[in-house]
Amino acid sequence: MEVLIGIVQLLLIVILAPGVNAVIHKTKCLIRGQKGPSILQPYRDIYKLLNKRSVISDTASWISRFAPYIIFSVSVVAAAFIPVFSSKTLFHFSSDVIGFTYLMALGTLFLTLYGLDQGSAFGGLGSSREVTIAALAEPAMMIAIFTVCIMNGTSSISEIFTKLSVHPLQAFSVSSVFSLLALLMVAIAESARIPVDNPETHLELTMVHEAMILEASGRDLALIELGSLIKQAIFISFIASAIFPISGLLGFIWYLLKVFSIAILIGFIEISNAKLRFFRVPDFLAVAFTLSVISLIVHYLEV
Amino acid sequence: MEVKLAEFFIALAVFFSITIVASNRLFLGIKSYALQSLSIAAATTLIASIENISHLFVSALLMLIVKACIIPLLLFYVTKKLNIQRKIETNVTIFDSVIFCALIVVFSYFLVAKFNLSSRVLGFNVIPLSISVIIIGLFIMVTRRKAITQILGFLTLENGIFMAEIASTHGMPVFVELGIFMDVLIGVIIAGIFVYRMSETFNDIDTEKLTSFKE
Predict the structure, then answer these.
(1) Which of A121, A127, A190, A243 is surrounded by the fewest CB atoms within 10 Å?
(2) Closest Cα of chain B to A145: distance in Å?
(3) Is this prediction's ipTM beyond 0.95?
(4) In chain B, whose CA is at the least distance from the CA of A170?
(5) How far are the Cα atoms of A8, A12, A114, A194, A240 from residue A79, in angstroms, in the given order?
(6) Are residues A177 and B11, on separate chains, in Cβ contact within 8 Å?
């Protein structure tokens, strides 16, 4: 039964992932006064790509053949850590935050290797930018997640969920407000969204994520895209799980509500900000780092 | 519960003062200031309902009208009218000043621990957070070079003072509050005119250039 609940929660995040992205895109289109594609469009795209053969460049080594599968599976494994409506995730016996964050980093590593391996100039450029962003985002993410852990006295994501659903008011302490804001900023940076990277264009001067997967096609592209979408959904779900979690069926509806409101919020942030120059990205991530440090110290100082 | 919610909005105000520090474009800074005033207005409304002081609702409403709408619109107007280059110029790099903000917040927590006023104030976090808004405002005034950004710093500082005052005095007499609002509004108008005169005379609003005055 526990395993069944775990599998359902995992599948939920995987199935929801393209939908979350579609909601963000739809929000932006509606604000601009456009009709926008249907919410189901990313599902259709991925289905179409999955049925196509992939083409790999001549210079590519075994990394290019394996990387899409590794990126996808790492994201799915990380998704198995995240509680949706019950603390009984697939890895609830050891859902450790350090394992969780480094699974995500493994996905990033293989994505950057994939970009380098293709032998195209854009791939290397994208990889170098992605590594820069990831290296700057990591301290902010680690400190923010550790603060959430320290507040709840445990490093297991499932136990954090259990404790928070017993004491929901915890999510409103000042230090957790700061750490959630920091996590939101890191989520925007890591899932290549607007102030850091624009997911809608292929402009060679600015693209980061798109540059790395420029050579990918067919099934490989579908797997990499799905992996990135799941990663984004994981970040949003993690933030959602830290705000007033409820377990049970009601918790499921509440979870959907929270995830889609965060998606709409991200849409608003995207529409009201210009993309930053690449050398301004450290300033953006410095804000996230500052917020996470403030949250850590305020946790010890507030009574 | 309501105290926690008020603290949440004041934490948001600190966040928006950090985004003013981090913004490299004037419009982003002005928008952040409007959002900061909005969250302080929300916090004031909550404090008014906790303490049951009716005239604090008036302050919250004035906050909403004057500081979240009129002053930002005025600043937008001045910026557009003068064709000011919208880039913000700083003496300290933005990265360093953002990191410095963390030190400011920590410092104000330690400062408040010395005051020992927890018995009189609702919510432990309100006073240190408002003091950090005050110091961040001062920091903006000192490190930014353009007159408009210095006005933003002054307004941030004033927001912090307003917050600290509301939390520690349980609301001042209504005429004092009204006077403060008038002062700030008139101050911003005068500062706007001053900036206008400055750009007329020197074609620039960089305050560094004022030091090179010779008779």
Answers:
(1) A121
(2) 18
(3) no
(4) B4
(5) 11, 10, 22, 24, 14
(6) yes
